[in-house]
Amino acid sequence: MKQDETMKVKRYDDTNVNPDFVAERKKCTFNIELLTNIIDGSSYLTETRRQAQLAVLNNESFSNLPDRYYASRDEAYAQNIRKSAAYIKLLKEDKSISRAESYFMQCLIFPNEVPPFSLHTTMFTPTFESMADEEQKKLWMPRIENYEILGTYIQTEMGHGTNVRGLETTATFDPSTDEFIIHSPTLTSIKWWPGGLGKTCNCAIVMASLITNGRNEGIHPFIVQLRDFETHEPLKGGLTIGDIGTKLGFHGMDNGFVKFDQFRIPRRNMLMKSAKVTRDGTYQKEKKLEKLKYGSMVFVRAMLVFNQAGQGLAQAVTIAARYSCVRRQSEYAPGQEEPHIIEYQAQQHILFTELAASYIFYIAGNKLRELYFTMNYDIQKGDLSDLPELHALSAGLKALTLDEAVVGIERCRLICGGHGYSAASGIPKIYTEVVAACTYEGVHPVLYLQTARYLLKVYQAALLSSSASSLPDNQSSKYIFRHLHSERPRFHFPLSFVEIVEAFERRALMCIEKASKKLDGLLATGRPHHEAWNYSACYLIRAAKAHSHVYLTSSVHEQLETVRQEDAGVYTVLGQLFELYALKSIVDHAVEFIESCGITTDQINICIERIEALLLNIRPNVLPLVDAFDFPDRLLGSALGCYDGNVYQRLYEYALNSPLNKSTVNVAYFVYYIAINIS
Ligand SMILES: CCCCCCCC/C=C\CCCCCCCCCCCCCC(=O)SCCNC(=O)CCNC(=O)[C@H](O)C(C)(C)COP(=O)(O)OP(=O)(O)OC[C@H]1O[C@@H](n2cnc3c(N)ncnc32)[C@H](O)[C@@H]1OP(=O)(O)O
Ligand SMILES: Cc1cc2nc3c(=O)[nH]c(=O)nc-3n(C[C@H](O)[C@H](O)[C@H](O)COP(=O)(O)OP(=O)(O)OC[C@H]3O[C@@H](n4cnc5c(N)ncnc54)[C@H](O)[C@@H]3O)c2cc1C
């Protein structure tokens, strides 16, 4: 990114800070900057992020006016298009902007928003790059990279989302014209939900059943132009397109529908890297590359762990923590000043356990992102051996971290009392964005079952192997094999960090064994496989969750081992958060740990006592721990969570700006009430 010499806006206003915050920040026992580097991934990424954020704050085209919480849907969409236009212009003009810089800029330009063009970068382009052949890339990529083509990803239909093989849209090859005919044969086959489809995008990858020579060859991707490149009108020839209407959140996003009525596209618009239809209609495929078509789903699922679960929860925690250090309530000691609500143990238990979870998701999410890019490098070159592990991990972690994050965000809102319910707190917006991610890219029961399907295969292979070296070289195979072929360790309380990871692994292995036994038991009674699988679902989902917890604890433990060499202060606070998250999970799933690790209820009680001690340990650092996330105020968009802690002034300003306050007597009240009931 080109450096801007005129950068003048500071990311924080550190004048006029609430004195309570000044006192809190003085209690800090560790190097905040070092922890920020860990959260970002490196000091280089911290610096990159800050520069990118400054560039956004200095650019008036990216302001959020009119106020984002008062905007109607039309206004919210228009604001997003205005900012998108400026952002895309910038990306086109400054080719030195890196992928990381553009990512950081986008997060701040569209705070807690998925903007209308985002499907272009997250799904349309990656799917095209992965599924198009070289000639197709040469033809299309320049216009895609130049944003002349703005694409979305069209898979889901009104009647089918999860069951991709059950999609009804057809792409029938017509050899007489060398074209595919895209068609929606029923009401339920209307494509429904794609982001940016309603009003914004001019092209799409459409997933449809390929039919040639009378045979249905299954779901394949096609690139389809939807709108005229000049007038932006939907193309003629069989398209009905629109916006699907208001949703729980995503107000600035035009999720859309499209009905195809015998709409024709050239044969070469089928993406032909792993399968093709020749001029005479012959279908050919490379079986080994078949699963590449699922690739963009794996990508987004892997990114959602740090981007939505980690960042979303961390933002809610930051808001709740800062507010808790300002808000005073109730008489604690008779006759004395009301304490800050942060001093109540009940508040600490919720706030600090969510703080711990946000650190775990952020750090594990960063590691998953790195793992994705490492593994995907080989996958794109045609070596798909890591794909099952990556698919299982990204599916399970997307589900588990988002499940826990949305509950955590709501708990943060609740511990802010009444002001948490105001849009001004910023938490409702965070919630509606993050909870959407629990649905898109796959609903969670379905994703857990995908993870479990893989785990049972790994388990069977580990059972039959006498040496780990004969198994695939990945984390799942390693820990499952190791614990399957070794004695259960004796656990000592309080648990060491190494023992914590071991305990999570033993628990996961037990859950996998139980799921396997359950399935085998049902099969042994003569039930068909699909039925036995369905009635093992509760066991299978427990196994997938337990396995995902193994990744969370082991990857953060790995991070801790590195930090230990570097800085004692950061190691101590990060260790406290790790222990708190792990112990809370053990207590929440006590039955599974008692059974799998041979521990007692008394030892669970030791964990409960230890959690209370950790709350006291964490208390002095609470504000520095959320400061370390380094969220600019604009990103949080919160009167309660600003860096300077001037909560009440901002709440008052927010209310004064309410459109309802533009007049002293509202016209509706005058017309409908006074006119009818008082005159
Ligand atoms: C800090 C530095 C920054 C650096 C820069 C970072 C860059 C970051 C960039 C971006 C950040 C992005 C942040 C994200 C922002 C979010 C924006 C997103 C906006 C919204 C997008 C929403 C898009 C959508 O929702 S698209 C629709 C998604 N739909 C689904 O997910 C449907 C779910 N259903 C399915 O996945 C499948 O149909 C199914 C798997 C459930 C069932 O299918 P099936 O019946 O055919 O499968 P089987 O069960 O029979 O399995 C067959 C076989 O295939 C394997 N399989 C299945 N899925 C996959 C897969 N995805 N990958 C690989 N393999 C898969 C399965 O395991 C089976 O294998 P076997 O070997 O066992 O046979
Ligand atoms: C905000 C948002 C943005 C989206 N963006 C896009 C997009 O850009 N492009 C796109 O193509 N799609 C998009 N989608 C669609 C999304 O991917 C689907 O909604 C999602 O995959 C779920 O499919 P469905 O809605 O058909 O639910 P269904 O598949 O009907 O599932 C409903 C419920 O049934 C249960 N269930 C279903 N199948 C099973 C099973 N096999 N086992 C156990 N339980 C099951 C689950 O509890 C599930 O929650 C978006 C959705 C949302 C909410």
Report what the structure shows.
- With 679 residues, this protein is α+β, with helices and mostly antiparallel strands.
- The protein has three domains: 95 residues, Orthogonal Bundle (Butyryl-Coa Dehydrogenase, subunit A, domain 1), CATH 1.10.540; 162 residues, Butyryl-CoA Dehydrogenase, subunit A, domain 2; 301 residues, Butyryl-CoA Dehydrogenase, subunit A, domain 3 (Up-down Bundle).
- It contains 24 helices and eleven strands.
- A hairpin with a 4-residue loop joins strand 2 and strand 3.
- Bound molecules: ligand LUOH5OJ7 and flavin-adenine dinucleotide.
- Flavin-adenine dinucleotide (FAD) binds next to strand 1 and helix 13.
- Ligand LUOH5OJ7 binds next to helix 5, helix 6, helix 8, helix 10 and helix 13.
Helix-strand layout with pairing:
Blueprint: H1 19-26, H2 32-40, H3 43-57, H4 73-93, H5 99-109, H6 118-131, H7 134-145, E1 151-154, E2 170-174, E3 179-183, E4 191-192, E5 203-212, E6 215-225, E7 239-243, E8 256-260, E9 263-266, E10 275-277, E11 283-285, H8 295-324, H9 345-380, H10 387-414, H11 417-421, H12 427-436, H13 444-464, H14 475-484, H15 497-524, H16 529-534, H17 537-566, H18 568-588, H19 590-597, H20 601-618, H21 622-627, H22 633-636, H23 647-656, H24 667-678
Parallel strand pairs: 1-5, 2-5
Antiparallel strand pairs: 2-3, 3-9, 4-8, 5-6, 7-8, 10-11
Helix pairs in contact: 2-3, 3-5, 6-8, 8-9, 8-10, 8-12, 9-10, 9-17, 9-18, 9-20, 10-12, 10-13, 10-17, 13-14, 13-15, 13-17, 14-15, 15-17, 15-19, 17-18, 18-19, 18-20
The structure holds ligand LUOH5OJ7 and flavin-adenine dinucleotide (FAD).
Binding site for FAD: 156, 195
GO cellular component, one term: peroxisome
Cofactor: FAD
